[in-house]
Amino acid sequence: MARETSSTQSYSEKWYWDDRYTNESDSFDWYQNYSSLSPLINLYLPPHPTHRSLVIGCGNSAFSEGMVDAGYEDVVNIDISSVVIDAMNKKHSDRPQLKYLKMDVRDMKAFEDASFDAVIDKGTLDSILCGSNSRQHSTQMIEEVWRVLKDKGVYILVTIFVVDYVLFYLFNAIIFDFIRDLSYLPDYIWSSQLSASAV
């Protein structure tokens, strides 16, 4: 099968990201950097020694570095690309507050239930929605996000899609009994505080 790296459908494929990070090693932040999102992050998850955050589809973004610089002490990052995870582990070997793990967001069994205070997603759900079997794969991802969030945990999503479209996939997962707080912000940013109890 030909690899059309220019197609957004490739955004859901591991090979695409391995190829991209092999050829593009400079740090890049999708959609928003930490400084622009910090008011939102601080609102829902102020820095605290016990707070544990998960950044999904981290890539080579400097976002998590910004969080640590701001006082967050436990920021776990996952990505499907072994290329970028190896690079980020080498880059931040001297910063124990940052952890980088190769992992598929649709299968995070390495994490226990209710183990994170926040999950931060800058474009990862978008990438999955670009690919084939998007309904199935997005449901798998959302179920895993819900599973690893603590009760009253926060899922912060930055998306380029229309909010109603994204909400369809969130509710399609049939895992949240309600969304307690929905904040619409500029530049397609929104966040929700989720109940961690199943229907």
UniProtKB/TrEMBL annotation:
Gene3D superfamilies linked: Vaccinia Virus protein VP39 (3.40.50.150)
Pfam families membership: Methyltransf_11
An MF annotation (GO) of this entry: S-adenosylmethionine-dependent methyltransferase activity
Transmembrane segments: 154-176
Keywords, sorted A to Z: Membrane, Methyltransferase, Transferase, Transmembrane, Transmembrane helix
Top-rank taxon: Eukaryota
One of the protein's GO biological processes: methylation
Keyword Membrane: yes
Signal peptide residues on this chain, from the entry's feature table: none
InterPro entries in UniProt: Lys/N-term_MeTrsfase_sf, Methyltransf_11, SAM-dependent_MTases_sf
Domain Methyltransferase type: 55-156
Record family assignment: Belongs to the methyltransferase superfamily.
Database matches in PANTHER family: METHYLTRANSFERASE TYPE 11 DOMAIN-CONTAINING PROTEIN (PTHR12176:SF79), SAM-DEPENDENT METHYLTRANSFERASE SUPERFAMILY PROTEIN (PTHR12176)
Name recorded for this polypeptide: Uncharacterized protein LOC108832349 isoform X1
Lineage: Eukaryota, Viridiplantae, Streptophyta, Embryophyta, Tracheophyta
